[in-house]
Amino acid sequence: MINFYLVLLSVLPLGATIPANTKHGSRFEVFKNGTFFIKNVQLQDRGQYLCTAHNRFGSDRMVITLAVQTEAPRIQPPKTPELSIYLGKTVAFDCLASGKPPAQISWILPDRTFVRDPGTIHTVLSPMSLLQNGTLRIHSANFSSKGDYKCIASNAAGADTVTYQLHVAALPPSISEEVQDTVIIQPDRSMYAHCSAKGEPVSLRNRRYQMGRKDEGDYTCHATNKLGKDERKLSVKLGSNAPQIGLKSQSLVKVKLGESVKLSCQATGEPKPRITWISPHTDVIPPLSDKYRVVDDGTLILKKVTLADEGKYACVARNSAGDDIKNMIVEAELQEPYINGVRGKTTAKLLAVSYQTALLDCRVEGKPEPKVWWLTPYGHSLTPPYLGGRFQVHQNGSLELRGVRKTDAGRYKCFAKNHLGELLEALSQLTPPDQV
Ligand SMILES: *[C@@H]1O[C@H](CO)[C@@H](O)[C@H](O)[C@H]1NC(C)=O
Ligand SMILES: *[C@@H]1O[C@H](CO)[C@@H](O)[C@H](O)[C@H]1NC(C)=O
Ligand SMILES: *[C@@H]1O[C@H](CO)[C@@H](O)[C@H](O)[C@H]1NC(C)=O
Ligand SMILES: *[C@@H]1O[C@H](CO)[C@@H](O)[C@H](O)[C@H]1NC(C)=O
């Protein structure tokens, strides 16, 4: 029978003896056959162990030295230990360390806070958290976030550190609006001068103005941040008076056919507005023509009104400050028909030349527009547009007779009719050619 004893010389409290088949604490055990078993070796387990064996004939002993191998932590060097990020952006600092036993990761923040436990970090700095793998993540950098971030990896064998340097950058401000030196505002209107800026961060002064009458002058919009400033100057001038047309209510003008009519358009404004008239066919009316005259004060005179002149006339008053417009409707009064500009019967004598063309006019006016027809000496009724043989009646009422001969002589009567009256008028006496 052999008895084994293990004596731990330098590690366990002096003289600690573990007999065979006995446990010592949770990690040490000496088996029945004398084998010493250490669970979960730690650095402090290194040292000398003495094994003694004895029986009644004597004893023996053996000293064993246990060395525990360790490896001090080594942090993977960062690719970019110095980093610049824009305000509000996220950044992560890795801290991957090797080591035996595995290194414990902790961080020292720029404000000297020591962080070891993974999770959200509460400091006066911008929000950040420590991840399980040792990475430090800054969620929304602001100017408090800048500085040195030091990662410490440590185990029983030693420690390693890396330091990241963080700069928080911003964009210098720049005002987006185009340069516009002078703005002219209307005396009784208001305006907005916009001023918006790019940059991080940016503060704007004089963002918006509402201009009133007494606000003439120079204005400056300033945009500033830590990196610089930008500004826009704006000069506001009180502008001229936009035109205003008086008496705008009078808009329907009745006129007798064949007569003239005046359409007035009196506009005020500074500088003096220029008057332009637009016809119902939306043409610009020339200042002087057979039909129209525009007087100096802007009045439009419409000469010898016909049904074709009816419609909407627009007077436009314009100067550098703006324009105003007035519409007037010209309407002919109801009128029984009349022919060749004369009320009442007319007789025209026409001398024709053999084999030439004779033109017998019948210009009819009236409202509503009259119906026109001709009656020949032979009792034929011809309505425009008529074209037959040598006879033609034009749209304007004129009867055209080509290649006049003796037998064409006689009385040609033109008739005009609307619901206001029928007029037998315009007796044209065609004298035969051979009587000339
Ligand atoms: C001693 O006993 C243990 C457990 O029974 C065994 O694992 C080990 O191999 C033995 N050692 C020798 C030298 O027989
Ligand atoms: C940065 O953010 C933190 C948390 O939101 C805040 O307490 C601190 O005042 C901020 N610093 C600056 C310079 O804005
Ligand atoms: C650490 O973990 C985060 C999130 O899981 C990951 O994005 C990052 O890449 C990890 N870092 C390293 C060095 O593995
Ligand atoms: C009527 O129209 C015809 C053909 O276009 C023309 O020759 C004639 O001169 C016109 N008559 C009047 C009075 O306008």
Give a description of the structure.
The chain is mostly beta strands and 436 residues long. It folds into 5 domains: 3-66, Immunoglobulin-like, CATH 2.60.40; 72-169, Sandwich (Immunoglobulin-like); 174-238, Immunoglobulins (Immunoglobulin-like), CATH 2.60.40.10; 242-332, Immunoglobulin-like (Sandwich); 336-435, Immunoglobulins (Immunoglobulin-like), CATH 2.60.40.10. It has no helices and 46 strands. Strands 9-18-17-12-13 form a 5-stranded mixed β-sheet, with no helix packed on it. The chain has a 5-stranded mixed β-sheet with strand order 37-46-45-40-41, with no helix packed on it. The chain is rod-shaped. The termini are far apart. 21% of the residues are buried. The mean pLDDT is 84. It binds 2-acetamido-2-deoxy-beta-D-glucopyranose (4 copies). Residues 31, 33, 35 line the site of one 2-acetamido-2-deoxy-beta-D-glucopyranose.
* Rg, alpha carbons: 57 Å
* Terminal Cα span: 180 Å
* Structural class based on helices, strands and sheet pairing: mainly beta
Low-pLDDT runs of 5+ residues are none
At the fourth level of CATH, the homologous superfamily of the largest domain is Immunoglobulins
- Largest sheet report: 5 strands, mixed
Record the strand order, biggest sheet. 9-18-17-12-13
Shape: rod-shaped
- CATH class group of the largest domain: Mainly Beta
Strand content: over 45%
CATH topology of the largest domain: Immunoglobulin-like
Q: How many structural units, i.e. domains?
A: 5
Secondary-structure arrangement, i.e. CATH architecture of the largest domain? Sandwich
State the share of residues found in helices, binned by percent: under 10%
Q: What is the β-strand count?
A: 46
Please tell me the overall pLDDT: 84
Bound molecules: 2-acetamido-2-deoxy-beta-D-glucopyranose
Q: Give me the number of helical elements.
A: 0
